UniProtKB/TrEMBL annotation:
Taxon lineage: Bacteria, Pseudomonadati, Pseudomonadota, Gammaproteobacteria, Lysobacterales
Keywords: DNA-binding, Transcription, Transcription regulation
SUPFAM superfamilies, A to Z: lambda repressor-like DNA-binding domains, Periplasmic binding protein-like I
Domain of life: Bacteria
Pfam families xref list: LacI, Peripla_BP_3
Gene3D superfamilies cross-referenced by the UniProt entry: 3.40.50.2300, lambda repressor-like DNA-binding domains
Region (Disordered): 335-360
Organism this protein belongs to: Dyella marensis
Domain HTH lacI-type: 4-58
GO molecular function: DNA-binding transcription factor activity; transcription cis-regulatory region binding
Name of this chain's protein: LacI family transcriptional regulator
InterPro entries the UniProt entry points to: HTH_LacI, LacI/GalR-like_sensor, Lambda_DNA-bd_dom_sf, Peripla_BP_I
């Protein structure tokens, strides 16, 4: 069976093609009863507007772009699926655009992308979303966008965003390890130009401080969000004279590398070494034992960022009135088999140091 066309919708509704087009484009000139009749017909027939043709017929663009630079395939796929679900829900097309976030020509590249493909706006994933110069250039060129950023609170900086509270989630992971009885907890960074890396480190550092544990700088190593860096970093930490009893990797790929390093050293996880990651990617579920981590709803984050962008566009076109508010996501602690009390240590119900309440 062929897909229904706009002509089928017009015929079944008893209205003109122009009226159907006006309903699809959400023009205010259509009477409420006519709009309702056409929308019921569209739903009954399962008609899907063609975003490209729709954009050519209208003064408004009906496709958006997702811009990312991330080597983590799980993150990229989840983000794409989330943004795409919002596009399907609102009848928008989607242009996927991987890029090099370090390119000096990135701003020109994205401006050309929007113009060439007649995009209504962009969803910016980290780290592009956290580059102030890039954001400023896009704003100066009148390009609509929504950023996905790592932040403990709404930045209120005039640029729309969806923000992820990595710091509080990292605090919860570190607190979990402390309450199991661990005092020597290693930390492996991701890329420093991703704001999530310093935010996750700060959550780790805050938890140690609040529980009165002096941080040993030898237990903190730089790196990337990659399996190999987790493996190499763990081998360095485990070779210390006084090695950690637990290691917190800034993402699940790093934590999976730590697990491989522990196995290669003949350690029994979690009894010889506890391991925690971040994001709840397939690495965390497929590892043995499964990894304690922080569940980050990447797909939902992408979906809400796209809906935020579309709401902004609708408001600019006179179809919406209230300015959408920035949304916060807090990754949730997921405790699995990779963490346990250290050997020869009975876990105690630890509490933050007096005068320093637990951070939210």
């Amino acid at each position: 069976m062929r897909n229904p066309t706009i002509k089928d919708v017009a015929k079944s509704s008893g209205v003109s093609l122009k009226t159907v087009s006006r309903v699809i484009n959400r023009e205010a000139s259509v009477r409420a009863d006519t709009r309702e009749k056409v929308e019921r017909t569209i739903e009954a027939l399962g008609y899907q507007p063609n975003p490209s043709a729709r954009g050519l017929r209208s003064t408004h663009a009906y496709a958006i772009g997702l811009v990312y630079d991330n080597p983590n395939a799980h993150y990229v796929i989840s983000m794409q699926e989330g943004v795409l679900s919002a596009c399907r829900e609102r009848g928008f097309g989607l242009q996927i655009h991987p890029c090099d976030s370090s390119s000096p020509a990135l701003a020109r590249e994205l401006c050309a992308l929007v113009e060439r493909n007649r995009l209504a706006g962009l969803v910016l994933a980290p780290p592009m979303s956290e580059q102030h110069e890039l954001v400023s250039t896009l704003s100066k060129h009148g390009i609509d966008f929504v950023r996905i950023i790592s932040s403990r609170e709404d930045p209120h900086d005039g640029s729309p965003c969806v923000y992820v509270d990595d710091r509080s989630a990292a605090y919860a992971i570190t607190e979990h390890l402390i309450q199991l009885g661990h005092k020597r907890i290693g930390f492996l960074w991701g890329e420093p130009h991703h704001r999530s890396s310093p935010e996750r480190y700060q959550g780790y550092a805050d938890a140690l401080k609040d529980y009165g544990i002096v941080q040993d700088k030898k237990l903190v190593l730089p790196g990337r969000y990659a399996f190999d860096d987790g493996f190499r970093g763990a081998r360095k930490l485990l070779a210390l004279k006084d090695p950690p009893t637990a290691i917190f990797g800034s993402n699940d790929e790093i934590a999976a590398g730590v697990l491989a390093a522990a196995r290669s050293s003949g350690l029994d996880v979690p009894w010889d070494l506890s391991i925690a990651g971040f994001e709840d990617s397939p690495f965390s579920k497929q590892a043995w034992p499964a990894l304690t981590t922080a569940r980050q709803s990447t797909g939902e984050i992408g979906r809400h960022a796209a809906l935020h962008l579309m709401a902004d566009l609708q408001r600019e076109n006179g179809e919406g009135f209230a300015e959408p508010s920035n949304e916060c996501f807090v990754p949730e602690l997921v405790v699995r088999g990779s963490t346990a009390p250290p050997k020869n240590n009975t876990p105690k119900t630890a509490a933050p140091r007096a005068g320093q309440p637990r951070k939210a």
